[in-house]
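To: structure subgroup
Subject: Chain for Friday's discussion

All,

I'm putting the inputs and outputs inline so they're searchable in the archive.
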Amino acid sequence: MDFNNLVSTIAAIHRQTLAHAVKSVNVALTLRNWLIGGCIHEFELHGADRAAYGNALFGKIAEQLTSQDVPNCSKSRLYRYRDFYVFYPQIVATVPPQFAALLSTGDSKPTPQKVATLSPLSGKLILERLSYSHFELLLEIVDTLKRTFYETECINGNWSVRELKRQINTLYFERSGLSKNKEKLFNLANADALLLAPQDIIRDPCVFEFLGLRPSEIFPENKLEAALLEKVQQFLLELGHGFCFEARQKRILIGGEYFFIDLVFYHRVLKCHVLVELKVDAFQHEHLGQLNTYVNYFRTNEMTAGDQPPIGILLCTAKNQELVQFALAGMDNNLFVSKYQLELPTVETLKEYLARQREEIAPENSPDVTGV
């Protein structure tokens, strides 16, 4: 071993032991949160004095833990820990004996949620490959098949938390069901791996089941938006009564620069223009600023006698309600944020694809799916 080899070896040891330490800390944190959730779940079912707390239980626990300087145990987080325990009971197999003794589950232990004949991924595998921050995103997904899909793809693609969030927000699950070549889509997704009140007219969420999109070789994000824009007649019916189509990709000139509004309607009941912007991702406050600019332009340049002020509608895949409220502060209340979703693909199609992806991760977790 020469000097350069010595330095390289020491540096490699540092990197590998650091990675091991980080991984160990993450596993310990995840187990901590799961065990907290298990204790709460057990108390909810069998606690001797549980009736004395009722709906105030989580608030009381949070109050007491805060007074004892136990971190990350707010009321909302405690609810999430309880759900984590219920959704991922297979983690019990990884709990060391000294901790298992603290969790007296009796007959209240929840059973893993299966997707037809697909067994849940092992507790050992998900603890090693997913951080608790991954689990927090996954717990927001109510549908078991959809959540299992993202678990599998996240592990298979080695996604960061940020990338998992991006894939969820850009409807990767839905696009997978619309694509014939799911492996190609997987490769593409991983290549980029990170007086009548208007509110009575606007539907939220807008569920675009009318699309009737045919499966294609691959279904990227720009095709989703194009498909929505092409289905103008059905789009109008879904939005609600009174919408009259006026323009698509309407070009406007502001300060010598051209901008394009996705869809422009005139609403014959509200007597105003309705501007629609489609975003194939989750709500961001800059989206609203863009739409507000277009609404102000129409108010100044397109209104005629008898018109009411224009309305803006932002369609996105998901919305953070609190972020929306702050983004809307001080703005005209004729701006709305809606969310949409595609018609879900067939369950059978997704199960078969999911089984193949799981086989690549861990063969022992992929039972025979013949006949699913």
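Points worth raising on Friday:
Residues 3-46 form the longest helix (44 residues).
The domain at 198-342 is CATH 3.40.1350.10 (Trna Endonuclease; Chain: A, domain 1).

D.
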